[in-house]
UniProtKB/TrEMBL annotation:
Lineage: superkingdom: Bacteria
Keyword Plastid: no
A Pfam family this chain is assigned to: BPD_transp_2
InterPro entries cross-referenced by the UniProt entry: ABC_transp_permease, LivM-like
Protein name stated in the entry: Branched-chain amino acid ABC transporter permease
Amino acid sequence: MSVAETLTAARPRSGRTVSFLFLAIAITLIVATPFLPNYYVRVINSLLIYILLGIGLNIVIGYAGLLDLGFVAFYAVGAYSYALLASPQLDLHWPFLLILLVAACLGAATGILLGIPVLRLRGDYLAIVTLGFGEIIRIIINNMDWLTGGPKGIPRLDKASILGIQVARPIDFFWLLLVTVLVVGMLVWRLERSILGKAWAAIREDQDAARGIGINTTNAKLAAFATSATIGSIAGAIFAASQRFVSPESFTLQESVLIVLMIVIGGIGNILGIVAGAAILMLLPEVLREFAEWRILFLGLLMIFLIIVRPAGIVPRSFGPDKLIRRLFGK
């Protein structure tokens, strides 16, 4: 057997080993989390929230090929939806699931409102407009003291409860976020493989050609913005419920850039890549907390190294969830 044939035969075996390793790490983390101190559970909860945000933004950036730098606006819409409907601010105390539905609807509506003016924009121009949109939302929240509390934010939010079961401890939010991430991830993965997902892929490759073969690019883009914004708003509502406090400081441009970096480093258009990118950008600073003066420098050098060595991301688009499943259970 030649060297090339040997390497070809060994590749599926090594791929299956990597798949089993990925699955083993995920299962170990899930099983071990309930036994960790609250601080570490909160860190993992933050990781899950950013994975959820990454999945949402990936629809626009990874699937449809539209650069959105204002995604944090939808995150803020969801958070302030919960803050206003479950606090003494407006003296409203709605159920958590109802607020989650309202936040999702408001997020979708906001996404469509953003999508309509930018339908004809591409590339850098689209990025600038979405960036401005994110900053406009933050400034509005920061200046509407009578409604949002302004820079002081909204404290004393109600404790969340689902069907009479109170969700207040960090471990409670861990299970809620884990289920949400798994459900949303599965739905988005199926959406990518649907007719709408194929339309997004065509738009990503060439918008003019997609329009030429009969794809309604307007509706497809609006669907991408609306779906992405819905997921971002759901993440924001859960974030507000877990913190029981919201303020404009949590929704700056830096947050949008961080989510974009997770997608770029992990792998554009790949849900598994988002998990890897979020794990690096969220967990590595905690591991390097003892080296407070150097950890940001080290993290920046690592990001540059990964972008040079793995320009397609840690987990490229070709290695998606379907390929992971085939390698785990297929031949």
